[in-house]
Amino acid sequence: MLTPSLVALGYEDFGEIFVAGRAYLRKRDAVPGFNLAITEVGGAFWNASVAVRDYLLAHSSEVDAYAQQKRDAVARGATLFSSYSRDKEPFVRALRDRAMAWAASQPARIRPLTDEDAEALRALRLRAVRQEPDPFASAYEDERRRTIDDTAAFLRSLRGGDGEMLGLFVGTELLGMVGLRRLEGRRVRHRVTLFSMYVAPEARRRGHARALLGAAIANARMRGGVEQLELTVAATSEAARELYLRAGFTVTGRLANALKDDYRHLDEELLMLLLGDGR
Ligand SMILES: CC(C)(COP(=O)(O)OP(=O)(O)OC[C@H]1O[C@@H](n2cnc3c(N)ncnc32)[C@H](O)[C@@H]1OP(=O)(O)O)[C@@H](O)C(=O)NCCC(=O)NCCS
Q1: Among the atoms of ligand 1, which is closest to the Cα of residue 199?
Q2: 241 lines ligand 1 (CB under 6 A)
Q3: Which range has the worst mean pLDDT, 71-75, 229-233, 251-255?
């Protein structure tokens, strides 16, 4: 989609040359010239690159070894794009494996999101609603229109009211989220709504959602007078349903046709957790 526009601007398109999942383009009719790599956020190449970035930031000896590898490749006469890439390839592959293993072993951290997290939160939300639209009331087309400033304003208003957006980080990467908001007004202030529970696919089945849910429940408990948590789950979100039922939520109702796409309607279930019973 993007490539024809770039070609019209004078870029040469090399497609996924040398690296699967990364399109390479370059522009040589300008000084300086440009090299441009395009990849999908959250794709395999993206995840590996983020892991390598964080791994290198944490391991200076690997930075030196990588730099030496590059110098050696040139010294060995690998001065063309193709020969240089081929020469480095075994080292880069092994580095990527070490980085991925290290990233997977990093402890996750959960904390409330602030204005400064707006860009990362916007990217995560966009990815969630685009790749897995069913669980979210917000459509990708609507979400896309929200700027980073809008997202920062949303976080401010949530925190300024009686709510919070919790983020789950592995290394420096925001990989999960859940929001909570207390209802306003004296007759409904005992209720907290949970929304936007999401863990990025590459980080799933490691207990992150359970940890996010635990943190959200603890956060709600700290707000004096809160008695119950409520949320809705789309009928197709089986993993989420299982997560909540295991955590003690019960199904209290079903809203037929709660969500509507171009060609179908989707039911939602209403789930709730009473906080008074020692949970
Ligand atoms: C639902 C979701 C948040 C789970 O994230 P996760 O980090 O993989 O979940 P966890 O590893 O913490 O799993 C906790 C429990 O949830 C349940 N669960 C998670 N994934 C499941 C799956 N694919 N199938 C069945 N149960 C699942 C299990 O009971 C699991 O406990 P177990 O591992 O001991 O069996 C994630 O799949 C997701 O983001 N899905 C898309 C968005 C979504 O549906 N959001 C919910 C909106 S209401």
Answers
A1: 39
A2: no
A3: 71-75
